[in-house]
Amino acid sequence: MAKTAADCTTMAEIRENIDRVDRALMALFAERWSFIGRAAEIKAGLGIPADVPERVREVRDNAHRNAEALGLDGAFYEEIWAQLINRAIAHEKALLGEE
């Protein structure tokens, strides 16, 4: 059963809920990844390259700002997003034949 951190009274409950959140995060990452493949399809039709620096900056800034809005370390989460972006660009380049 889903609980808040404050509701947990044992390490077993903490671990169970961390695992639950991790599964939910993976589902969201899978959903995010589905948009990466579709972006490559759309970019191919429009002649847009995989790497669009202005958009990369925007997504990184969004990650930083969204993290801070939730009381998290913006720089840390921006770096995680940088890794996500780099992997997505590499995937799009492969799909677009840019490699």
TrEMBL record:
Domain Chorismate mutase positions: 5-96
GO molecular function, one term: carbon-oxygen lyase activity
Isomerase found in the keyword field: yes
Keywords noted in UniProt: Isomerase, Lyase, Pyruvate
GO term, biological process aspect, one: chorismate metabolic process
Catalytic activity, EC: 5.4.99.5
EC main group: isomerase
UniProt keyword annotation of Isomerase present: yes
Top-rank taxon, per record: Bacteria
Family annotation (PROSITE patterns): CHORISMATE_MUT_2
Database matches in Pfam families: CM_2
InterPro entries recorded: Chorismate_II_sf (IPR036263), Chorismate_mutase-related (IPR051331), CM_dom_sf (IPR036979), CM_II_prokaryot (IPR002701), Isochorismate_pyruvate-lyase (IPR008241)
NCBIfam families reported in the protein's UniProt record: CM-like
Protein's UniProt name: chorismate mutase
Organism this protein belongs to: Shinella granuli
Taxonomic lineage from the root: Bacteria, Pseudomonadati, Pseudomonadota, Alphaproteobacteria, Hyphomicrobiales
